[in-house]
Structure formats: structure tokens, C-alpha cells
Amino acid sequence: MSIDTDTARRVAKLARIRVEDEALPALASEFNTILGFIEQLQEVDVDGVEPMTGVTPMHLKRRDDVVTDGSQPEKVLANAPDAREGFFAVPKVVE
């Protein structure tokens, strides 16, 4: 498949990119280069290859999803500007 200047102009318009007329041949050439790379990739045999998310196998460490109080309420409340009875104290917003 080959891209000519008219097709390059149409693609630029669809992408809402302003391209001057004298730059259209270079843009068409770049599109043709990209399409050539895509054709090379289509020649690769990938039958039996499982998709992967990265080049090295990684396994995430998992832990039980358990709700806790953090076991450090004093340290957490030490950062609060105002704390009362083991909770953050905030100004009243609704009357």
C-alpha cells in the first residue's frame, strides 16, 4: 500500500493537523516508511506465542485484603492539627 500526497493531506485534515502543501510529500514518505515497518511486523510468525505485558516475567506479591486500624493510631493522630477521643477533629461545615 502506498500513500500519495492527497491521502497524506486527508489524514492530516482528519487528525486536525495543519500541514503546508510543500511538506506533504515528506509526510507521505514518512507514512510509507511506517507502513513498510508494519508490513515487516506482519511477516513475523507469532503462532503459539502467548501475549505478555513485559519482557521479564513478574509475579506480584499478594497479601490478604484485611481491614485493620493500622495498629498505629497514636502515630497517625500525632500528625493531625486537632484530634479528640482517638479521631481527627474537623470544623463543623453544615449547620
Account of the 3D structure:
- The protein has a domain at 5-42.
- The mean pLDDT is 89.
- The longest helix has 19 residues, at 24-42.
- The protein is elongated, with a radius of gyration of 30 Å.
- A hairpin with a 2-residue loop joins strand 1 (83-84) and strand 2 (87-88).
- By secondary structure, the chain is mainly alpha-helical.
- Helix 1 (5-14) packs across helix 2 (24-42).
- Strands 1-2 form a two-stranded antiparallel sheet.
- Helix content is 37%, strand content 4%.
What brief labels describe this structure?
95 residues; mainly alpha; two-stranded antiparallel sheet; 2 strands; ligase; glutaminyl-tRNA synthase (glutamine-hydrolyzing) activity; nucleotide-binding; transferase activity; Aspartyl/glutamyl-tRNA(Asn/Gln) amidotransferase subunit C
